Amino acid sequence: MNILLLGNGGREHAFAWKIKQSGYCDQLYIAPGNAGTMQEGINLKVDPMDFGEVKQAVIDKEINLVVVGPEAPLVAGICDFFQQDDYLKNIHLVGPSKDAAQLEGSKDFAKHFMQEFGIPTAAYRSFTNATKAEGVEYIAQQKTPIVLKADGLAAGKGVMIINDIEEAQQELSDMLGGKFGQASNTVVIEEYLDGIEFSVFVATDGKSYKILPAAKDYKRIGEGNTGLNTGGMGSVSPVPFLTPELMKKVESKIIQPTIRGIQSRGLDYKGFIFFGLIEVKGEPYVIEYNCRMGDPETQSVLARMDNDFVDLLEAIATGNLRNIRISEDRRFAATVILVSGGYPEKYQKLKEITGLERVKDSLVFHAGTKREWQKIKTNGGRVIALTSYGQTMDEAIQQSNKNAECIKFDGKYYRKDIGFDL
Predict the structure, then answer these.
(1) How far apart are CA 359 and CA 388, in angstroms?
(2) What percent of the chain has pLDDT over 90?
(3) What pLDDT shows up at residue 109?
(4) DSSP 134-193
(5) Pick from 43, 54, 44: which is nearest to 78 by CA?
(6) Where are the beta strands (DSSP E) in 310-378?
């Protein structure tokens, strides 16, 4: 079959790498892709947010299966666009409907959903400009740290954890004033949960679900989990503290009620659910839902999946997931992200990348890269992901760190302590 993969990040390169290994893929197209995805298939100059362009690519390339990598097209309703088009409705697509994607697209929606179906999460209240004064007063009554979340999509940067009441009140005002654009027209203020975070991923066809390898990511820019939040600086899989007992609680208290909630509300969900979780005194709580796979967790998770990935994707899209059995590589996988200097704030692009040919015994997944003539250059904040296997976690981490030194570009930065807290 011919497959169209939408997106241009490290997650999409990992998807493309895994799809290319399948015996079911005749031709893979990536829109728009990056310098790395060119090694796995054919990049198309198509904007995933321009659904008309996507449709034309599906027609021109005789696409059988469309896989949506990032959240923005899902939240904007690409699944609905396909279902409402006479030609596209016959094309298989992996991704939830616009309504279902609100689990990620709206923190307020997700909180109401969890409350309705008894899914453990932090206590919260939501505020808009009309209720800003109430929000300021609410913050004054809370213990620190205070957690503020932009309701909508903010590229992984819309969560603030603040240790000062007055600073939190000012941040609320800034967010409601447009700090994250329309994404922070509503702000969710949450109880702070003190624990250790991890990520669980589920594939679902809306009826059945399959649990994929779990992972833990590291979002802070600085070592020791300090500094600003980013889209993710690294990840590891499996998660050593995720015991069988804790995983049973995750499945019974979080995954199963979520799937029941999706069915109860009649949401059309054929895709991946990312559960951003935290363990507090032996109990799991949901920090957030994502309506797609995570980045950089995907790089570690797919490295440990032994399944034919296209077989899994087709089963999701056609409602036949119950027939799939997930097979895991027993090795550890660790991913380290190389970022542009200044990220997650202002950074420069188009810095030449060298040393890629020197990388040994690690998978190289491109994120913010582009090819200009015969040179590969930076084209984003997160530039390269290095994923390595190991018989131990330390072995995997050390291999990724070793290869991180091989790659050079002006301003390169990476965290050398991924996995330090395990």
Answers:
(1) 11
(2) 95
(3) 95
(4) HHHHHHHTSPSSEEEEESS--TT--EEEES-HHHHHHHHHHIIIIITGGGGSEEEEEPPP
(5) 54
(6) 332-339, 363-366, 369-372, 375-378
Beta-carbon neighbour count of residue 72 at 10 Å?
18
pLDDT < 50 regions, the chain: none
For every residue of 62-124, DSSP letters joined together read T-SEEEE-SHHHHHHTHHHHHHTSTTGGGSEEES--TTTTHHHH-HHHHHHHHHHTT--B--E
Of 63, 135, 122, 75, the C-alpha closest to 99 is 75
CB 236 within 8 A of CB 300: yes
135 in Cβ contact with 127 (< 8 Å)? yes
- pLDDT value of residue 157: 74
CA 129 to chain centroid: 29
Q: Which residues contact 389 (CB under 8 A, 6 or more apart)?
A: 303, 329, 331, 332, 333, 396, 399
d(CA 175, CA 130): 13
- pLDDT tens digit string along 345-384? 999 999 999 999 999 999 999 999 999 989 999 999 999 9
- Nearest alpha-carbon partner for 365 in 387, 339, 382, 391: 387
Query: 160 has which bridge partners?
Result: 148
Q: Count of alpha carbons within 13 Å of 268, Cβ hemisphere only?
A: 17
Sign of CA pseudo-dihedral 30, 19, 15, 271: positive
Task: Summarize pLDDT for 154-208 with one digit per residue, the tens.
Answer: 876 788 899 999 999 999 999 999 999 999 999 999 999 999 999 999 999 999 9
399 CB contacts (<8 Å, ≥6 apart)?
334, 361, 362, 388, 389, 390
